Amino acid sequence: MSDFSSWVSTRQSLFEAVLKRLLPQAEVTPQRLHAAMRYSVLDGGKRVRPLLAYAAGELSDAPVERVEIAAAAVELIHAYSLVHDDMPCMDDDVLRRGKPTCHVEYDEATALLVGDALQSLAFQLLSEHRLSDDPARQLQMVKLLAVASGSRGMAGGQAIDLASVGKQLTLPELEQMHIHKTGALIRAAIMLGAHCGGLDQAQLDKLDHYGKCMGLAFQVVDDVLDSEADTATLGKTAGKDADNNKPTYVTLLGVPAAKKMAEELHHEALDALTEFGTAARRLRELADFIVMRKY
Ligand code: GRG
Questions:
Q1: 4-292: which CATH number, 3.40.50.2000, 1.10.600.10, 1.25.40.10, 3.30.70.380?
Q2: Tell me: the pLDDT tens digits for 32-42?
Q3: Do 31 and 41 touch, CB atoms closer than 8 A?
C-alpha cells in the first residue's frame, strides 16, 4: 500500500469512529429516526470532504480533535444533501453508496427528517466544540458552513440544477451551478480544516483558490464518470444525467474536452499550493486522487 493510501485508510477509519460517536445512538428515542441517520451517514462514501479537511488541518498545524469535528459537520451536511437529493421530489433514486437510498430503506417522511436532523446536528457540533482559541474565528466558521450549504451555496446550486433540466445552459451558467451545488461544500471542508489551525490571510486565500478549483474539478470528473462508469463501480445509478436530460460538462463539451478541463483545474489547484512546499503534500495527493478517481 502506498504511503498516501495508508494515510487515506487510517483517516477513513478514524473518521468512521468519530461519526459513530457523534451521531445519536440508534437505541435513543426517536429510535427509527436515529437508526435512519446512522444508516445514511455510516459505512459508505469516499469521505473526500473530511479527507480534504484533515489535509488542510495538517497544513495549518491544527489539533486533530478540532479538525475532526469540522470534518464531521461538513460530512453531515453532505449526507443530508444526498438523502434529500435521492428523494422522489428531486432525483428519485434507489441506490446510494451501494445500498438502497434512505427513503427506500425507511420511508419518505423519515428521509426528510433525516436530512433536517443531520443539518441541525452539523451546526450543533460547530457550536458546542471548541474549534479555535478565538471565538470570533469560530463564529466565522459557523457562518462559512451556513453560507456554503444555504441558498447562496449548495441548496441554491441544487435549485438551479432542478430548474435546468431539459434546458441548454452556457458554459458559464453550468459553472455557476456547479460551483454552488458541489464546489461550495468542498471548498468549505478545506477552509474549515484550515481555520482550526493558524494560517495567515494570504495563505488562507491561496488555499481557498485551491478549494475553488478542486470543487469544480470534482464535478467535471463526476460528469465524466456518470457517462463512462457503470452502476456497480459508482455505487449509485450511472447515466442519470443523460436519462434526466440534464446539462453537464460532458453534454456541453464532450468527454475529451471535459477531461481536459478537469486537468486544467487540477493544475491551477496545484499552482495555488506552491508556496506551502511539502506541508501541502496531502492536499496535492488528494487533488490527484479527485481528478484520477474511477468512482
Ligand atoms: C438536496 C439541498 C440539496 C442539495 C443536493 C450534492 C447535491 C446537492 C446533490 C447530489 C447529486 C450529485 C450526484 C451531485 C454530484 C456531485 C456529488 C456531490 C456527488 C456525490 O459526492 P461523493 O462522490 O459521494 O463525494 P460519496 O458517496 O463518496 O460521499
A1: 1.10.600.10
A2: 999 999 999 99
A3: no
